[in-house]
């Protein structure tokens, strides 16, 4: 079946889903990499196409059936790709105020107070990059005190070494923290 376009137009949904997780009125399925890491959240129809193209296996169904004249397919809730897919760079979590504050618990990484700014650990003026390992949440006071200096130069200590969040943190953001309970074993939040 590889390479050919596969239409779902011949399929109709039969039976009632045990439960379905909706976003914007569309029933969604969770796609896992071959390594079982969550990869994306897609409309159920898209997940079904992956299965019909033999690119993914259904791990969890939602209780409904998709029927065509020829076959009946359980409606997927969680599918797993047969081949490992390397996650492209663009799909990694962006470094911005919301995501960094979330990683750092909205706390200044120098003094523990409520964070108000993003701080470049190695300042941009010294060649510091806008990356997960060089950006932390900071309060205005520490941010100002530090200025264009490194923490050592400014006499400040970092609470922890800044790291890239786990690759599946985006799932929690994509689904706003709520998801089909059937996904729980596969989604760490
Ligand atoms: Zn501070």
State Rg.
22 Å
**Low-pLDDT stretches:** 1-6
Proportion in β-strands: 25-35%
State mean pLDDT (0 to 100 scale): 82
Supply the number of helical segments: 5
Provide a quick synopsis of the model.
It contains five helices and eight strands. It has helices at 44-52, 97-103, 140-146, 151-154, 169-174, and strands at 12-14, 22-23, 26-32, 38-43, 56-67, 72-81, 117-120, 135-138.
Description:
The protein folds into two domains: 12-88 and 168-186, no CATH class; 94-154, DNA Binding (I), subunit A, CATH 1.10.30.50. Helix content is 17%, strand content 25%. The two termini are 36 Å apart. Strands 1, 2, 3, 4, 5 and 6 form a six-stranded mixed beta sheet that branches. It is elongated and about 70 Å long. It is an alpha+beta fold and 189 residues long. Mean pLDDT is 82; it is low at 1-6. Zinc ion (ZN) binds at residues 108, 110-111, 113, 138-139, 141-142.
Keywords:
6-stranded mixed beta sheet; DNA Binding (I), subunit A; 189 residues; 5 helices; binds zinc ion; disordered N terminus; two-stranded antiparallel ribbon; 2 domains; alpha+beta
Write the layout of secondary structure elements.
Blueprint: E1 12-14, E2 22-23, E3 26-32, E4 38-43, H1 44-52, E5 56-67, E6 72-81, H2 97-103, E7 117-120, E8 135-138, H3 140-146, H4 151-154, H5 169-174
Parallel strand pairs: 3-6
Antiparallel strand pairs: 1-5, 2-3, 3-4, 5-6, 7-8
């Amino acid at each position: 079946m590889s390479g050919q376009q596969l239409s779902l137009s011949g399929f109709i949904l039969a039976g009632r889903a045990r439960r379905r997780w909706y976003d914007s009125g569309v029933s969604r399925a969770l796609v896992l990499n071959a390594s079982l890491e969550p990869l994306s959240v897609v409309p159920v129809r898209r997940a079904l196409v992956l299965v019909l193209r033999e690119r993914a296996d259904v791990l969890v169904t939602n209780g409904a059936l998709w029927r065509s004249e020829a076959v009946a397919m359980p409606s997927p809730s969680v599918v797993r790709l047969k081949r490992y897919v390397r996650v492209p760079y663009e799909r990694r979590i962006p470094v911005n105020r919301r995501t960094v504050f979330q990683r750092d618990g909205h706390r200044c990484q120098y003094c523990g107070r409520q964070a108000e700014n993003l701080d470049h650990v190695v300042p941009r003026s010294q060649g510091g990059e806008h990356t997960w390992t060089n950006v932390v949440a900071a309060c205005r006071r520490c941010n100002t005190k530090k200025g264009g200096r490194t923490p050592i130069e400014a006499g400040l200590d970092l609470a922890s070494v800044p790291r890239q969040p786990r690759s599946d943190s985006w799932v929690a953001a994509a689904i706003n923290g709520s998801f089909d309970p059937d996904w729980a074993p596969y989604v760490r939040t």
